[in-house]
Amino acid sequence: MCRWLAYRGEPLQPSLLILDAQHSLVAQSLNSPLGAETVNGDGFGLGWYPADAEAGGIPAVFRSIEPAWYDQNLREISRAVRSPLFFGHVRAAGGPPIQQSNCHPFRYENWLFMHNGFLSEFDRVKRDLTFAIDPSLYPHVRGTTDSEVLFHLALTFGLREDPVPAMERAVRLVESVGREHGVTYPMQGTMAVSDGQTLWAFRYSSQGKSRSLFHSVDIPTLREMYPDIERFRIFDDNAHVVVSEPLNDLPGSFVEVPESTVHILDAGGYHHRPFLAAA
Questions:
Q1: What structural domains does the chain harbor?
Q2: Quick check: 241 and 232 in contact, CB under 8 A?
Q3: Is pLDDT above 90 for 61?
């Protein structure tokens, strides 16, 4: 459906990952070997927390319906800003129209959210799921995607207080409503969410065959593995990235996130825990 990446570490130009990596996000928008669709040209988005902003500040968002490989503004912006935490997303529209409000990432207050996947047969469950969104949040749903509905369901269930149980409740509702409407496998995808300090990345599907998700190996380890690669000296020791698919072909540089897992990245590094593993 889509491809995405999320970075956390010392302030960095997003272009280093979005444009300049061997298999950058823009490269994946043209050729995505592990994606459900090879080409992801139905718009893109970049969301970032400014390097000079206070902790928990409001992120900036730039979204466009242009193909990522074509948009000059993406190149200008991603090279001009520096951010300690940013999201990048390229879209392959699976039904909802190609419009700016349907491009990821989505923002609410200091939170960013993006999704690769779908809520199966969304037209059959859309009404029930949309009506489950808290009335105070409903006016903030600007587009027509299942992903934005999922985000606002998680907000409804307490994302701002505790993201993991909030996402669990949102996904359980999607599955419950879907099965009431005869949908066999209601949920599919990988999701990323952040408050500007911590990154939560979820990999889950009702079928147990989720979209691909990986995280990078620690930079000090990569330098030991590949001492001759100068590029790794650009990155601080605390630089980490979570991606739909690896940004290079170097063996051992990326690790697959297991099925039914939430991958948590904070100041202490990576942490994993089960996510609806018994659902």
A1: 2-274 (3.60.20.10)
A2: no
A3: yes
